[in-house]
Amino acid sequence: MDYSQEYKQKLVSADEAVKLIKSGDWVDYGWCNGTVDVLDQALAKRTDELKNVNLRGGILLKPLAVFAREDAGEHFTWNSWHMSGIERKLIARGCAYYSPIRYSELPRYYRESSCPDDVAMIMVAPMDKHGYFNFGPNASHLGAMCETAKHVIVEVNENMPRCLGGTECGIHISDVTYIVEGNNAPIGELGAGGPATDVDKKVAQLIVDQIPNGACLQLGIGGMPNAVGSLIAESDLKDLGVHTEMYVDAFVDIARAGKINGSKKNIDRFRQVYGFGAGTKKMYDYLDENPELMSAPVSYTNDIRSIAALDNFISINNCVDIDLFGQISSESSGIKQISGAGGQLDFVLGAYLSNGGKSFICCSSTFTDKQGVMHSRIRPTLAEGSIVTDTRANTHYVVTEYGMVNLKGLSSWQKAEALISVAHPDFRDELIAEAEKMHIWRRSNK
Fold it and tell me: Which of 245, 401, 417, 434 is catalytic?
């Protein structure tokens, strides 16, 4: 069937499309590098006409036009499923808020919510001959979002890679209200930061030594997971698989080094499965039209049952702080929101249930604040207001540059002893003293 006529009928300017939005509406902006651009600029021009417009999205890779004005918070509120640095600045201005949820539950939330989107706006790849607009590397929750929204506006960008997959990775023109042709600017990139530090490399080596041939990998974002990826690419490991929430540049390096073929996966053999991807143009070019990759909703990629079905599942994630009880905070520092719950807990639980699986929470033993003062990431208790991402009952392996410990099943004094053993030496006596006060230390241990 030729969909060109329907395309012409639904094609409008961005200014025309955003006239659908009214004061009090809930409006979705897409996700990560699929966040709308020209539609955002068009909506910003209507600022004075609108009040209390609630925007949804997450992992912003560049500032939004609607929040350029100082009084933007009187007109728009940003509700984020996962924070980036840009969104943290909006929190400080009082116009952005984090929406806590396990990422795997997001598609279900959209389908069961009593507060559906009035308008959903997403950046997509150009329509194919079958009438579908591909979500690019953002299957995530967008299928459920489009199913339940009252109106769907797609912003077409020729630079959006067409990411193949299983289900819910695109929308048909028959389900679209309006089509807007964007400015075809390069889609947002997310670098891995600077080169790996000596600390990153030490942590990475400890983890890589635990990875068997045929393992299935999940990597989080950040310097340490990427350092692990670099070491894997240089290693003798083979027959690796990928099943991850987020696809990152490190996977491209591992694949191009010939380490990934997915032949040992129990499900989705030979496919690299991911919920969304954010990285550099190198990664986007690799994802584009690549049949080895499988773009799938997070209700599948992050489902504990999917993860546990894969033998030798290796989950590698960062954290902000750990306390001596084994509680992991990966999303806030005190009351300061940093990122979000994401899928970390799902992968911690799923990896442990996997036959031969392991989950690793890694971090540097210390950090230095803006005043140049060094602090331990292993604390007696989490800072007041810090959010527990992984409870003490679920934490498996913890890794710093000083070693690796398995906390599963340990009593409170054993956990404290193990964590202090991988803390920075300058802080160990202080941590022991605090552990004694909390009655989780045995004098015979020292």
Answer: 245
Mean pLDDT score of the chain: 94
State pLDDT tens for residues 239-276.
Answer: 999 999 999 999 999 999 999 999 999 999 999 999 99
- Residue 209 CB burial class (10 angstroms; 0-12, 13-18, ≥19): exposed
Respond yes or no: is residue 245 known to be catalytic. Answer: yes
Burial of 394 (0-12, 13-18, 19+ CB in 10 A): middle
Give the per-residue pLDDT at 350.
98
Helices 223-234 and 249-256: angle between axes, nearest 10 degrees: 0
What residues form the annotated binding site for CoA? 220-224, 320, 343
- Torsion (CA) 77, 79, 83, 85 in degrees, nearest 10: -10
Structural domains in the chain? 4-181 (3.40.1080.10), 198-445 (3.40.1080.20)
Place of tokens 């950046």: 123
C-alpha torsion angle, residues 121, 122, 124, 127 (rounded to 10): -30
